[in-house]
């Protein structure tokens, strides 16, 4: 890699990192580096400094509580995959390949907000909250945090410190990802959380990634399923409704028309898989 | 103990598996580093180039453009005249850097030389090129209109236009029961060797030394000599370990030439190793379409083929691109008895990265075309795939057989191979299984394809065997193995010829000052051509040693027999002398020295086989190739494990070509993919591979009797896999790669 000339700073603690990032607006925080490094290589970005935040140990934790689970932003995909978090752990197992899962962090993913990233489908379905720290600390919903593709709600000098998700006890779930070959980005990713009572669905949440600028929830499809008896017919109808929430663009991974079609099939598969658990 | 025919472990792999191999980038030469300023446009005039800012950049010693190099050039880079006829071509020999125009996105415009790669990369951004954009012709269809002319000197974008005809085509179409139309396309690929290309050039006191990631050191030396006007005797090209090539490193790049020219201008060593993005631009491959008609009888007999073949060249004619449009038509008849055909083959310049040869070069294209034709005929006439092929295959008593275009197939029994192959691979059982699975709702399919390919490619190859005074053996081969392991097979052949242990043999290649002459490794030819030359040299060395033994035993040479390390007096078997003693004596007395050099002539040869693929397509149109089976007659098999390795590697690339790899060029002429989305199969995508070789092979005329296997699976694989997908989804497909959206 032959990036543009840049400075490299190792931050010992969070305050040092945010102070530095605030003073140098064109500096970039380096965590796992799996989006940053390729962009440096291609010279798409030209940061003045890389601020290595990997040694900030108080961002590196996962703490399960009875109502919610707090995830430090430096948690790797591998660590999340092993943490038994409903939906999110399964999502983490499907990100890229083992090397990426060992290095990449959840804070990095949501600060980058690649439209094809896996976590956002689950985070939006879970009503996740994002804790952000700069001069002050604030907590925003993931939905508001993800303003647009590659556009997180982060001001200069702010870093994501924590992601908070409800515990979703007694929920069934599934994250289904369609990829052309092992380790690729999602063509479409569908996250489903379900609460059933016997044969009826009490609550359902459906999140979609890779088929819009940012992850979306298919709320009308959720409403169609909520408080209904489980039947093939209603699942079929709801899956078709999920497709209405997909506004994909044509690219190498498929035409827009193809991606819409498979969104429906993936949604159905995610719902059925969740019900099986 | 005989070595040939056995799976001897590869001799020189330790360094590769322990990370101790040395590629161009690993060589410790105190060289300046080079980087290239590249065109952002597909077609533009260069109005001016301002290098002043770059030259001020720290660590930069020089920036050269076309103007600096043109006085040093006798001519541009030519074509591979061993196999290609310049008279058939309209082309402008490509210079080291763009002259007054750029013709593709990524074309090198200036070379920046500096003390380290980082400074060079920064300075590349500081060279200001003032372009005036021109309308471009990115697709072959656009280029054919000749509204945008890519090389003004030529007056047209058609570089090659030749009609290959034989037999009574009109008559055959009149006799036909049915005429079937076909359109068949192979999209653009990127060969992607693990090691990108690289070069170090050092020019001192009139002598040029080049360390080069190449498959053809001697051809490169000859081309550098012609381009620079430096005699070949003063150029040395050394091929260090080469991390794969797949044909793409026969090509001589303008970047390579620019590095050489820079070293001459600066009088200092200069080095360039392509970045991965540069490697993706350096060699692209395939990209052709055939549109035609096929005249058939209702029993499936193919009477004639006529059609138009369009082959993309990219913006310049590379050293190896002329092969494809000239060989594809000749190979379209394959092993079938097609007695009339007329194919117009045109090669088109477009404002895209230049095309080079890639594993199979011309035979994958021809095989895909003819096998699509055979399968289409089967579908149209509701006949079985195997039956249609069997009906049309050349019969054993017709071989040697001259095809409709005059190509002479040397040996083979195509029908027997098809029958025993289909049987051995369990094709009909697999078809039945797929049908049963489809009844259960799964989209499983099985497809077969047959191929006959051309390999060996003459015209000669070099082999030298030296036995030293200790009896150890050095073999110098004109072959240039770069990952295939053919050096081990050559050692096996020489061990057998000399009846010495393989551990006493060392194989050397890839240096123009060690190897007297060489063609190289490409076209599945190394064991046939280089192996035979080494074997013949070994037998000559043995004759010399018999003479020495006769001298020692004081008998006539006719009375000496050599058996397993001992020279024996036939008249009195108690009198004998050992290999080692003869070797020692060979360096005393009159006529000392035990060497033999052989430049062995050879010709083309024609391996063939049948391959079968099993695929499953899911609800999303995503294909998995689950099983791949091969049955090949490749002549004598010297090392079955090496041969099987070639089938495996070819299969992986066939899976890539069939369903994953596509070098998409956007409307502005830019390569639209990186390795994030140019999908090369990973181990997860590799099917279970089974390979068999014919028990009674039909040998070639080469002394070792082999025919070649290096390209077979990539030649026939895409056709077999595409046929399997058709079987799974019951829908016609006539292109590679097949995308998921084509299937749902």
UniProtKB/TrEMBL annotation, chain A:
<dbReference type="InterPro" id="IPR036318">
    <property type="entry name" value="FAD-bd_PCMH-like_sf"/>
</dbReference>
<dbReference type="GO" id="GO:0071949">
    <property type="term" value="F:FAD binding"/>
</dbReference>
<feature type="domain" description="FAD-binding PCMH-type">
    <location>
        <begin position="1"/>
        <end position="170"/>
    </location>
</feature>
<dbReference type="InterPro" id="IPR005107">
    <property type="entry name" value="CO_DH_flav_C"/>
</dbReference>
<keyword id="KW-0274">FAD</keyword>
<protein>
    <submittedName>
        <fullName>Carbon monoxide dehydrogenase</fullName>
    </submittedName>
</protein>
<keyword id="KW-0560">Oxidoreductase</keyword>
<dbReference type="InterPro" id="IPR051312">
    <property type="entry name" value="Diverse_Substr_Oxidored"/>
</dbReference>
<dbReference type="Pfam" id="PF00941">
    <property type="entry name" value="FAD_binding_5"/>
</dbReference>
<dbReference type="GO" id="GO:0016491">
    <property type="term" value="F:oxidoreductase activity"/>
</dbReference>
<dbReference type="InterPro" id="IPR002346">
    <property type="entry name" value="Mopterin_DH_FAD-bd"/>
</dbReference>
<dbReference type="Pfam" id="PF03450">
    <property type="entry name" value="CO_deh_flav_C"/>
</dbReference>
<dbReference type="InterPro" id="IPR016169">
    <property type="entry name" value="FAD-bd_PCMH_sub2"/>
</dbReference>
<dbReference type="InterPro" id="IPR016167">
    <property type="entry name" value="FAD-bd_PCMH_sub1"/>
</dbReference>
<dbReference type="InterPro" id="IPR016166">
    <property type="entry name" value="FAD-bd_PCMH"/>
</dbReference>
<keyword id="KW-0285">Flavoprotein</keyword>
<dbReference type="InterPro" id="IPR053586">
    <property type="entry name" value="Glyceraldehyde_DH_medium"/>
</dbReference>
<dbReference type="InterPro" id="IPR036683">
    <property type="entry name" value="CO_DH_flav_C_dom_sf"/>
</dbReference>
From TrEMBL, chain B:
<dbReference type="InterPro" id="IPR000674">
    <property type="entry name" value="Ald_Oxase/Xan_DH_a/b"/>
</dbReference>
<dbReference type="InterPro" id="IPR037165">
    <property type="entry name" value="AldOxase/xan_DH_Mopterin-bd_sf"/>
</dbReference>
<keyword id="KW-0560">Oxidoreductase</keyword>
<protein>
    <submittedName>
        <fullName>Aldehyde oxidase</fullName>
    </submittedName>
</protein>
<dbReference type="Pfam" id="PF02738">
    <property type="entry name" value="MoCoBD_1"/>
</dbReference>
<dbReference type="InterPro" id="IPR036856">
    <property type="entry name" value="Ald_Oxase/Xan_DH_a/b_sf"/>
</dbReference>
<dbReference type="InterPro" id="IPR053554">
    <property type="entry name" value="Glyceraldehyde_dh-related"/>
</dbReference>
<dbReference type="Pfam" id="PF20256">
    <property type="entry name" value="MoCoBD_2"/>
</dbReference>
<dbReference type="InterPro" id="IPR008274">
    <property type="entry name" value="AldOxase/xan_DH_MoCoBD1"/>
</dbReference>
<dbReference type="GO" id="GO:0005506">
    <property type="term" value="F:iron ion binding"/>
</dbReference>
<feature type="domain" description="Aldehyde oxidase/xanthine dehydrogenase a/b hammerhead">
    <location>
        <begin position="18"/>
        <end position="135"/>
    </location>
</feature>
<dbReference type="Pfam" id="PF01315">
    <property type="entry name" value="Ald_Xan_dh_C"/>
</dbReference>
<keyword id="KW-0500">Molybdenum</keyword>
<dbReference type="GO" id="GO:0016491">
    <property type="term" value="F:oxidoreductase activity"/>
</dbReference>
<dbReference type="InterPro" id="IPR016208">
    <property type="entry name" value="Ald_Oxase/xanthine_DH-like"/>
</dbReference>
<dbReference type="InterPro" id="IPR046867">
    <property type="entry name" value="AldOxase/xan_DH_MoCoBD2"/>
</dbReference>
């Amino acid at each position: 890699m032959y990036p543009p000339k840049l400075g490299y700073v190792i931050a010992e603690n969070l305050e040092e990192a945010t102070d530095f990032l605030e003073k140098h607006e064109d500096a970039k925080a380096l965590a796992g580096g799996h989006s940053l490094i390729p962009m440096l290589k291609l010279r798409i970005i030209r940061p003045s400094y890389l601020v290595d935040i990997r040694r900030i140990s108080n961002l590196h934790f996962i703490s399960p509580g009875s109502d919610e689970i707090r995830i430090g932003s430096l948690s790797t995909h591998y660590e999340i995959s092993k943490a038994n978090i409903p939906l999110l752990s399964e999502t983490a197992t499907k990100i890229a390949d083992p090397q990426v899962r060992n290095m990449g962090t959840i804070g990095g993913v949501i600060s980058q907000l690649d439209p094809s990233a896996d976590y956002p489908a689950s985070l939006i379905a879970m009503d996740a909250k994002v804790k952000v720290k700069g001069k002050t600390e604030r907590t925003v919903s993931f939905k508001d945090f993800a303003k647009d593709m590659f556009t997180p709600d982060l001001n200069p000098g702010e870093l994501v410190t924590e992601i908070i998700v409800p515990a979703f006890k007694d929920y069934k779930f599934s994250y289904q990802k369609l990829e052309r070959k092992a380790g690729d980005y999602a063509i479409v990713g569908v996250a489903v959380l379900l609460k059933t009572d016997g044969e009826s669905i009490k609550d359902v949440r459906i999140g979609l990634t890779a088929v819009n600028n940012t992850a979306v929830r298919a709320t009308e499809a959720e409403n169609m399923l909520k408080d209904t008896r489980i039947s093939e017919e209603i699942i079929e109808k709801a899956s078709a409704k999920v497709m209405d929430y997909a506004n994909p663009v044509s690219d190498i991974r498929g035409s827009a028309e193809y991606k819409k079609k498979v969104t429906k099939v993936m949604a159905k598969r995610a719902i059925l898989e969740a019900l099986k658990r | 103990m005989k070595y040939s025919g056995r799976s001897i472990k590869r001799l020189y792999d330790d360094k590769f598996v322990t990370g101790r191999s040395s590629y161009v980038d690993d060589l410790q030469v105190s060289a300046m580093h080079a980087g290239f300023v590249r065109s952002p446009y597909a077609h533009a005039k260069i109005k001016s180039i301002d290098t002043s800012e770059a030259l001020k950049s720290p660590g930069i010693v020089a920036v050269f453009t076309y103007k600096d190099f043109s006085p040093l050039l006798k001519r541009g880079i030519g074509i591979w005249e061993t196999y290609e006829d310049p008279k058939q071509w309209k082309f402008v020999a490509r210079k080291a850097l763009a002259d007054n125009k750029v013709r593709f996105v990524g074309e090198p415009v200036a070379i920046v030389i500096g003390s380290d790669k980082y400074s060079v990369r920064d300075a590349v951004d500081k060279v200001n090129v003032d372009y005036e954009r021109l309308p471009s012709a990115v697709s072959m269809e656009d280029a054919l209109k000749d509204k945008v002319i890519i090389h003004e000197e030529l007056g047209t974008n058609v570089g090659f236009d030749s009609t290959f005809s034989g037999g009574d085509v009109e008559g055959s179409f009149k006799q036909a029961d049915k005429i079937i139309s076909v359109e068949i396309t192979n999209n653009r690929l990127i060969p992607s060797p693990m090691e990108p290309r690289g070069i170090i050039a050092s020019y001192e006191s009139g002598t040029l030394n080049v360390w080069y990631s190449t498959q053809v050191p001697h051809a490169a030396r000859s081309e550098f000599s012609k381009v620079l006007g430096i005699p070949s005797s003063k150029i040395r090209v050394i091929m260090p370990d080469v991390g794969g090539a797949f044909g793409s490193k026969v090509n001589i790049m303008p970047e390579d030439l620019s590095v050489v020219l820079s070293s001459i201008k600066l009088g200092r060593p200069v080095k360039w190793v392509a970045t991965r993005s540069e490697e993706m631009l350096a060699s692209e491959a395939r990209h052709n379409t055939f549109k035609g008609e096929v005249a058939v009888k209702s029993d499936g007999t193919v009477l004639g083929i006529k059609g138009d073949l369009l082959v993309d060249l990219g913006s310049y004619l590379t050293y190896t691109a002329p092969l494809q449009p000239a060989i594809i038509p000749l190979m379209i008849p394959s092993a079938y008895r097609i007695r009339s055909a007329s194919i117009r083959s045109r090669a088109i310049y477009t404002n895209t990265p230049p095309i080079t040869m890639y594993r199979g070069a011309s035979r994958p294209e021809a095989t895909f075309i003819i096998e699509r034709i055979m399968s289409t005929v089967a579908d149209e006439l509701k006949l079985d795939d195997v039956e249609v092929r069997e009906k049309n295959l050349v019969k054993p008593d017709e071989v040697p057989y001259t095809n409709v275009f005059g190509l002479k197939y040397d040996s083979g029994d195509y029908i027997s191979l098809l029958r025993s192959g289909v049987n051995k691979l369990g094709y009909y059982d697999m078809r039945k299984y797929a049908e049963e699975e489809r009844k259960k709702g799964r989209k499983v399919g099985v497809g077969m394809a047959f191929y006959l390919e051309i390999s060996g490619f003459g015209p000669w190859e070099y082999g030298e065997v030296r036995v030293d005074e200790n009896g150890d053996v050095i073999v110098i081969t004109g072959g240039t193995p770069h990952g295939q392991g053919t050096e081990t097979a050559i050692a096996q052949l020489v061990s057998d010829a000399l009846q010495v242990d393989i551990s006493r043999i060392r194989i050397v290649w890839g240096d123009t000052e060690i190897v007297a002459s060489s063609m190289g490794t490409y076209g599945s030819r190394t064991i046939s051509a280089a192996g035979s030359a080494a074997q013949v040299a070994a037998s000559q060395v043995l004759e010399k040693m018999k003479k020495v033994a006769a001298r020692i035993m004081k008998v006539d040479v006719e009375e000496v027999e050599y058996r397993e390390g001992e020279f024996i007096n036939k008249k009195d078997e108690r009198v004998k002398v050992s290999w080692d003693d003869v070797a020692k004596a060979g360096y005393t007395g009159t006529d000392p020295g035990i060497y033999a050099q052989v430049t062995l002539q050879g010709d083309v040869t024609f391996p063939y086989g049948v391959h079968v693929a099993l695929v499953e397509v899911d609800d999303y149109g995503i294909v998995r190739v689950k099983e791949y089976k091969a049955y090949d007659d490749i002549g004598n098999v010297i090392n079955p494990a090496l041969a099987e390795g070639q089938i495996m590697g070819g299969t992986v690339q066939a899976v890539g070509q069939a369903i994953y790899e596509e070098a998409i060029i956007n409307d502005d002429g830019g390569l639209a993919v990186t390795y994030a989305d140019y999908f090369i199969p990973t181990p997860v995508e590799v099917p279970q591979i089974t390979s068999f070789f014919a028990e009674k092979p039909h040998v070639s005329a080469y002394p070792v009797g082999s025919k070649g296997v290096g390209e077979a699976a990539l030649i026939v694989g895409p056709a077999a896999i595409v046929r399997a997908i058709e079987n799974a989804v019951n829908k016609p497909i006539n292109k590679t790669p097949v995308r998921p959206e084509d299937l749902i």
